[in-house]
Amino acid sequence: MKTALLFPGQGSQAVGMGADVYRAYAEARRVFDEADEILGFALSRLCFEGPENELTDTANAQPAILVTSLAFHAVVGGRFMALDCVAGHSLGEYTALVVSGALSFADAVRLTRQRGEWMKRAGDRSPGGMAAVLNLDDETLESVCRQAAQETGGVVQIANYNSPGQIVISGDRATLDRACDLARERGARRIIPLAVSVATHSPLMAYASQGLQQAIAAVTISPPQVPVIGNVSAGPLLSADAVKQELMAQLTSPVRWTGSVQAMVERGVGRFVEIGPGNVLTGLVRRIAKDVETVNINDVRSITDALNA
User: Which of 10, 58, 233, 269 could share a disulfide with 4, CB 3.0–4.6 Å?
Assistant: First the structure.
């Protein structure tokens, strides 16, 4: 059975993540210890002990999720020999690129730290928000966003095509609020404002994208040794240039997760393994592709089950 490895994005962080695998496996300890050395502070302690408000700060959460995911992968990744492709949701794409060999661990740790810092700056310059909209189709919600932007002169667009009927929109507060009102009128079953102050995956992240482009241009990117299914294109990234263009476009472009999972199924993938804190991606895959196997690896017990399978 062909296998795809999936890596979670921001929002999956939780105090205590990775602590048990750090204690249990030398491979995981090496990952966390190296990240601490690269960053010059104890990211590992922040993951294991918090405090929560510091861990959820985007400049900390982004490298923390990357490092925790890669610590799990260091222990269990070699178990999945029929590996066809890898993918990550937003921030998780950086983890996927490390696993594919396109990006070094050290560069990924530094880039995700910088990504978080640039996003904070962009949010200060252009405040915004995000909301999850349930039970509207893509075309209807795209129309809603266009109408809201025309009415207010502001910015709102789809940020994440997460699964059929579960879509996240992103924009400035006034335009986002108008889009939410219009979505209700069009039949949205539920609208959930997200606890964020930045409008990720929208034009309001242009400042962050421009700043991050300089950092991306300064690192060495190699052709992936395993195809990476990109967020922006929902297709395989097969060259170093394709990876670079993906990363430069990612912050202002929607995450096409539904299309990415469908593309992996079309490649013949029948097993999806989410590696990292949380289990959000496993749930999304089940909504997109009904007849596939899903595995979630986020603690020592699930690692033991995978190694013994």
Answer: 269
